[in-house]
Amino acid sequence: MKIVVCIKQVPETNDVTIDPKTHNLDRRGLAGIMNPFDKNAVEQALQFKATNDASVVLLSMGPDDYAQSLREGMAMGADSGVLLSDRAFAGADTLATGYVIAQAIKQIGDVDLVIFGRQAVDADTGQVGPIVAEFLQEPQITYAATLRLSAPNEITAERLMEDTKQTLVAQLPAVVSVRSELNTPRYPTPRNIQQSFDKPLTIWHHDDLDLDDSRLGQAGSPTIVTKVYAPTPVKRELTQLTGTPQEAAGQLIKALKDRQLL
Question: Cα separation of 27 and 37, whole Å?
Answer without folding.
Answer: 20
